[in-house]
Amino acid sequence: MQTSISKLVNQKRRSLDLTIEKLAERASVSVSLISRIERGELENISLNKLQSIASALNLTLSDFFTDDSLTGIHTLELIAYLKSLPEEQRETVAESVLKILKL
């Protein structure tokens, strides 16, 4: 899990074109904390700090605890988009995407 959190923080930060310093500022945490997280050194991080980092990256705390195979930034973005739709519309979009993938 540490590796997936580290990878997700790094990938999302880069996709938002943020430096470690800018992310730390947005999340109100230290630069060294962000650096340690990206290196996989997550011992004793509080959920509050992790939540602040998630918010600064436009993620949810639960994104850090998703199945490792679903933690890519684009995968999470697609899942978040589908979750935001009403159920009927979500099923229609999912069906359409699956049809496109099977072409």
Automatic annotation (TrEMBL):
Q: Does the keyword DNA-binding apply?
A: yes
Q: Reply yes or no: does the keyword Metal-binding apply.
A: no
Q: Which UniProt keywords apply?
A: DNA-binding
Q: Where do the HTH cro/C1-type domain residues begin and end? A: 9-64
InterPro entries, per database record: Cro/C1-type_HTH, Lambda_DNA-bd_dom_sf, TransReg_Diox_bact_type
Top-rank taxon, per record? Bacteria
Family matches, as Pfam families: HTH_3 (PF01381)
The protein's name is Helix-turn-helix domain-containing protein
